[in-house]
Amino acid sequence: MASVNDLSRTGAAPWAARAPAFSQPGLARPVDWATPHDLDRLRARRAREQPSKPLVPTSVASPRLGDELFARLLTYGTPQETHRGDVLFRPGDEDVDLIVVDRGSVEVIRTETAGAPAATVAAVDAGGFVGELNLLTGQNVYLLCRVREGGTVYRVSPERLRQLMASDVELSDVVFKALIARRELLQRSTAALAVEIVGTDRSAAALALRTYAARQRLIHLWFDAGTPAGRAMMESSGLTEEDLPAVVIPGATLKQATPGVLAEKLGLSYRRSSVKPVDVTIVGAGPAGLAAAVYGASEGLDTVLLDAVGTGGQAAASSRIENYFGFPFGLSGTDLTGLAVLQALKFGAQLASPCEAVRLDTDRNGGLLRLHLQGGEIIDTKAVVIATGARYRVLPLERWPDFEGAGIYYAATELEARGCTGNPVTVVGGANSAGQAALYLAGRGSDVSLVVRGPDIATEMSAYLVDRLLVHPRVTVRCRSEVTRLDGGDFLEEVTITDRAADTAQAQPCAGLFCFIGAEPATSWLTGIATGDDGFIRTDVQLAGDDLGPAWDTLGRRPLPFETSIPGVFAVGDVHSGSMKRVAAATGEGASAIASVHKAIAALLAGAVR
Ligand SMILES: Cc1cc2nc3c(=O)[nH]c(=O)nc-3n(C[C@H](O)[C@H](O)[C@H](O)COP(=O)(O)OP(=O)(O)OC[C@H]3O[C@@H](n4cnc5c(N)ncnc54)[C@H](O)[C@@H]3O)c2cc1C
Asked: What does the CA dihedral 85, 90, 95, 101 come to, rounded to 10 degrees?
């Protein structure tokens, strides 16, 4: 097996094609690598599946910093003399520094895996810097950085990098874009072999892992266990069918892996080094929570954002949002929320997922709220923004739980739709989300039965969708109808649709049932908070005098906009009573609530001083 010093220079890297732009002295200089036999084919397939285009042009991955800008970058770091062979970081390291090369050069290496020899990912000469997006997400390092030619590097700690991002607009723009571009490039490079996920294409557990990896934009490579490449990967890693889904990372093989275990291993679970209480903790990273995080962090609040599943919320399940302000051609929910995640990270918000809040202690002992997480961790915080949205409703049918993720889906994006392409599917629901899904799936070549319980599709759906659905040759709208039976082996194969008007039932093949019948507020983890009869949380003017306990008398004020019946606790987005259940409304509420958070914290401090 080749050593890292003895790499065969075969196979062209995507960025090698741009050699002139990357080979100037002082820039990160990605080199060719030994391409594992199957990677080109896998990568080519991935490229076809890639739903979104790069967020920034990949040409900004290796910026040329002028003398003045480079000197400014050095001021954020601490100098370190280096010698050939010194290791500056290695896989598994936490809280790694941005490495700025002042003299000499360094190389970044993807270490050997069971199926592929080590490979050099980039070489960085004096004037360049080493680092990618994990500097901001907090993910552990998965590559090795070693000194090629001795000299001096400057280490910029995570804390100093956050200061740079917050205070130097010109420099942060250059560095931030480079970090994002590098992630895009690394995802398509041999570096993706550092995190390999293998499972069966239609398994619910594998789908959960892949959804998590995709939403977190993790550098990884997916292997379908049913393909020759998947079988070869399993064999080289000593994995059996019982171990699936599995993840192979440097130094560890995670069998029957879950998003939680993967996050723990990668350092993406909640961890806090500071003993100081957090200013604002936001529970739920859908559009409302993300907007609150962007505004909270950008306005100088120490901001923590948690999500039980992954970032994006319901919006990430939408293949195409057409009514979001400023995007006349629509955009996918994953793209919209992915950009918001980057924005929140840039301003210094700390994100953790999967990370579920299970209890909130509200007695304000010492002026703080205490949030309990599923893993037993606690967060002491001055304010909490509840942005937990809503959970999907299900149909009360036998075998429903068996087929969840194995033919029953609550989203219609590339990940769910892939297994159904060209096969008949059923979409259940009469609102816009169902209409969008039906059009998306029909556009991918499936014959779609849109099953609506009510008498008229136009009752709840926007006219633009109704018009398109009614003329689409692959869509059959079945009003006054319900799905009444599910059949299949390990996967859903057939549904029975009962027409209530004609009193007939018909079984038909179904590769995927996409369910969009509304949602219930995700508030089961909360107690003692005022809600409406439907369980959605009431705030500010929706609260009557009876809702407000003695704590308010002591405070001597009424609830602020978006403040719940508990002082310092705010509710925004779909979980909020009377909310519009739209992305724009959720982001507006999340952003606006931060103004109230500032006031509540100020009042808290004033109270402490009195
Ligand atoms: C398929 C689909 C298509 C849609 N299309 C459109 C559209 O085109 N236009 C439009 O305007 N709207 C659309 N919507 C609606 C829109 O997505 C929602 O209104 C919006 O996402 C609500 O945002 P939110 O942040 O309030 O809640 P959510 O998006 O529901 O996010 C809540 C988050 O909180 C997390 N959470 C829940 N409980 C906990 C806990 N205890 N601890 C930690 N985290 C927790 C969840 O995992 C989730 O990520 C669509 C919805 C769906 C499902």
From this structure: 30
